[in-house]
Amino acid sequence: MALKLLFVFLSLWIVHMVLGKTSNFEDDLELERQLKILNKPPIKMFVTKEEETIDCVDKSKQPSLDHPLLKNHKIQVVYVLADDVVTEYGAEAHMWVYNLTVPHGLYSAQTLSIENGPDDHLSMLHAGWGVHPTLNGDGLARLITSWTGDAFRNGHFNTRCPGFVQTHREGTPNHPITPTSTYGGDIYEVVLHVEPDRQTWNWWLVVRHATAIGVLAE
């Protein structure tokens, strides 16, 4: 059953990362599966002004669609009609964005969070921005998304595993956010909105009130 909106909060948190995993046969199979996903050749590659390399793939062949629950999935398209404006679903957050100096091994994030269910089978999604020097090698603020349906035993983070279905070229998880705020100077914010699709009950991620850039698929 899809997530029901029970609790929404903004959180600013710093989490210490402990990296390490025992290698075994199942791990090798999982690594091979992930490599097959990552090795799909892009149609086009380009470098942004922030020197980020973006791989463009056919939207019907993006890695997220390798998720077992998305087999034979059809890419959804969201249409905004005048009648939709009067009824509001989901949640929205306006967040001030900063590039931060974060020590290696730590990361900082501010997210809009929605959760439901008991602690041992918690369903939760996050959307916001974060600085993750261990993952990205810099202190840039980037768009982040994550989702779990079983209290973090499984799930996805950004586009590093199946779960986020890209539907628009306006933005993508882990892409740097510009411009950013400065202490004592100009303030810039990112506006994020998440709302359920009333047919599939997957969750749309909308930026700047208007552009649905992708679906957090369950």
Poorly predicted spans: 1-23
Main sheet characteristics? 5 strands, antiparallel
Binned, the helix content reads under 10%
Give the amount of beta strand, in percent: 25-35%
Distance between the termini: 9 Å
The main sheet orders its strands as 1-5-6-7-8
The total beta strand count reads 12
**What overall geometry do the principal axes of the alpha carbons give?**
globular
Q: Rounded to an integer, what's the Rg over CA atoms? A: 18 Å
Structural class: mainly beta
Q: What is the number of helical segments per DSSP (H or I, 4+ residues)?
A: 2
Query: In sequence order, what are the helices and strands, one letter per element?
Result: EHEEEEEHEEEEEE
What average pLDDT do the residues reach? 74
